[in-house]
Each structure stands twice: as structure tokens, then as C-alpha cells.
Amino acid sequence: MRAQASIARRGWCPGVRRPMATGDGLLVRLQPFGGRLTAHQARLVAQAAHEHGNGHLDVTARGNLQIRGVKEETYPPLLALLDREGLAEPEGDGPNRLTVLSPLAGLDPLDRWDAPTLARDIETMAGAVEGLPAKVFVAVDGGGAMPLDPVGADLHLVATADNAVAFGAAAPGGLHWIGTASHARGPDAACAVLSGFAEMRRAGRTEARRLRDLEPDLVQALSERASLEPAAAPPPRPAAPRAGAMALNHGQAALLALPFGRCTAAQIAQAAAWSERFGHGEIRLSFTRGLLLPGIAEESMAPLLAEAHGAGFITDAQDPRLSLIACPGKPDCGSAWVPAPADAMRMAQSCESLLQQGVILHVSGCAKGCAHPGRADLTLVGRPDGRYDAVPGGSTRDAPLLHLSIDDLMTRLLPLKPADDLRLAFAGNPR
Ligand code: SF4
């Protein structure tokens, strides 16, 4: 059996059955439901990454897990192993995984509904919709402590205080709230939106592959098809914590963050061991690019966090690296123009106080913006000449204000204070 990494259809998403060729070999992406792995599964994936890949893995901004550096000859046994363990996606051309959940879903004292059950219903009902583009996905948000706003889903379902579900559709300027349904109608209404979108594509009414690219009148038509009631946007919530201890219905959870979401097979195996020693024997992959270990007793939290810190995890919510986002970059990605993670770490030295205040810096190896589809306080996009396009307050898709070398960038970042306006600091004619 040969790997199918050469398949490169538009809108295609890598998975276990369809690995993607990158600069360091094949990338195999696992998308377990809710980002959940048992300790046994996590240990098995770690062993597989060590034996069949280069021992490096990524936790993605959707809470998926990528095994890196797989060789053509080691891919077939890896596929067979993951398929046997139920970790391969279903066959077919649709989305590999239709829903994303908070890693706290089902355990969060602030949640207003049973988000995992709703997500399962949506997977069952909408998973069979013919012609749904592979990249489409739905954020199912129980309204708790980890809002899913940054994941960039096509459709966001958020539990509201009045026992309803608010529906947000992705739009160029952010989420557009298109209405509400009762909890009981949530899965039906979500399915109506998704099947309506697929139908519009089949009928030639749109060529959009993501809801954010759909014309406003068609979005309105989807809202009517789902019989959504008009409603205001749900009230804003504080952004999700990125590291440290978190309260649960019973006990606590430890959120262990990873710089840029990257880790080693040894770290995954170690987390599996901690989950058995201190918790429930479960690991949840977090969209904040970390591992959440639930069921930790209060007295076990400090020793666990101390061990995790020693093993290279970020355990302090004030760590400036949590405000840095970077894709694998050069040489790991064949499309990269710059070594994004190494440059990001260099730049962090020039703006540590900005990062500690929560200013988000996104360094992308190219304009695709895999690591972060949304806006950041400062987005830097690698260019073929090795310099960066600087986009303050925007995303990799927005027009840059300046083109700068990394040395020039560091010179501009060094004197900035948290209150400074980044747009002014990076104003100027593109060179
Ligand atoms: S953003 Fe570009 S360089 Fe970075 S991982 Fe994606 S394709 Fe590669």
C-alpha cells in the first residue's frame, strides 16, 4: 500500500487515511471525538510517533493531534495500527470530524448544556450530508469557561442563559449571529443549516467552500431554512485560560500548554502516565494547543504541575510564550518561506512585556495561516525574500502595512509598551 500524500484536491484535509506531505515527511492527523484519548490510546500514539514518525507531534488549534515525519514505508503499518484502535477517520470525502468541543465539555461547572451529547447528535445527523466540503466544522460550545470563539468554525452553537442555543455563522469580519433555537431543536437546526449549504453548492447557487465565504442573502436563507428565531449576540466571556489548574464539577483539571502546540512522543507518553497516576486516565486535546488532564485531586495539582513544568510543558498562565503563535515553518513545512517558530522565539525577546500583557503575536511561514486563521494583535507573514509582511490587528489574509526583516521587526518591537498602538508602530508604505 502506498501513502496517498500526492493527492492534493482543493479543500482537501489531511487525516489518518490521507496523510499530507510536508517538509519533514508525511503528516498524519488524528481527530478523536472531543479531542479525547484514553491513557492507553495516548501511549499507543506516542509509541507509533516514535516508531513510524520522527517523534514530534503537534496539538492543533482545533484540538487535533498530528504525527510528523512519517516515511512512505512506515505509513502503511501506522495506518493499520490507528485503524485497528479506532483512531482513523471514516472513509469518504466529507469532513473528517464535524464538531469541536471545549476540552472541559461535560465537566465544566459553568456549562449550560450537555455539549458532548449535542455534538454526537450533530455528527450522526449531519455526517451523512452529501457534498459537505471537507473543511466545514461546527463549534459546540456549552457556554462555559473555555469559549470556542478562536477556533474559526463555520458554525458556532453557544448555550445561552435562557435555555436556548445561539447560532453564529463565520463571516469575513468575525461571527455573525443568525438566530437561536431551543436546546431540543439544536441538532435539527444545525443539520438544516449544513444540509442547506451543501444543497446550495450542489444546485450551483454558490461555489463557497466555507460558510464565511457565503453571500449574506444565502446565510439569511440558511437561517430561515433552520427556522431560527431572531436574537442578539450572546454576552462576551473572558478568553479561555491557556495553562494551569481549572475547577471542575468534581476535582480539578490541569491544562498543560505546549509552546506552539509542538511536543515529543516522550511528552505524550509522560502525560498518559500522569493521567493514570493523578487523574482519570484520560487526556483531552485542547484547542488552546495543550493537553488537559481531568480528575486531579486538589492536593495532587502542585506536584503534577511541578513535574509537567520540568518536562517542558507551560504551566503558568502568565508565561509570555502563550501569546506567541507560530506554524511549523521552515524546514518542517515545504511551503514555508521562513523558520516561523525560531523567529517567533527571537522576537519574543524584544517584546516580552507586550506578550505578558496578552498581546497576541502570530508568525506564519506563509500566507496560508495554518496555525491561526483569525486576527492577532500583530500578524507576521513570511515572504519569498525571507522578510515578513506585517499586519497589525489582522490575519494572514489581510493587506500588510510593511515588509520588514526580522532585525527590523525586533527594532520596532523593542521600545513598545502594552498601551502602544501597534498600527501606528507599523504604519508606513510597503517596501
Ligand atoms: S502556514 Fe504555510 S508555512 Fe505554515 S504550516 Fe501552513 S502551509 Fe506551512
Record keyword descriptors for this entry:
431 residues; alpha+beta; Alpha-Beta Plaits; Sulfite Reductase Hemoprotein, domain 1; 5-stranded antiparallel beta sheet; 20 strands; globular
Describe this structure in words.
The protein has helices at 39-52, 75-84, 115-126, 186-202, 216-225, 265-278, 298-310, 340-350, 352-356, 406-413, 422-425; strands spanning 20-22, 25-30, 36-38, 56-59, 65-70, 99-101, 138-141, 155-159, 164-171, 174-182, 244-247, 252-257, 262-264, 282-286, 290-296, 324-326, 361-364, 378-382, 388-392, 402-404. The protein is 27% helix and 22% strand. It folds into three domains: 2-84, Alpha-Beta Plaits (2-Layer Sandwich), CATH 3.30.70; 103-225, Sulfite Reductase Hemoprotein, domain 1 (2-Layer Sandwich), CATH 3.30.413; 322-425, Sulfite Reductase Hemoprotein, domain 1. Strands 1-2-5-4-13 form a five-stranded antiparallel β-sheet. It is an alpha+beta fold and 431 residues long. Residues 327-329, 333, 335-336, 364-366, 368-370 line the site of iron/sulfur cluster. It holds the Pfam family NIR_SIR_ferr. Residues 19-83, 256-309 form the Nitrite/Sulfite reductase ferredoxin-like domain. One of its GO terms (molecular function) is precorrin-3B synthase activity. It comes from Microvirga arsenatis. This is Precorrin-3B synthase.
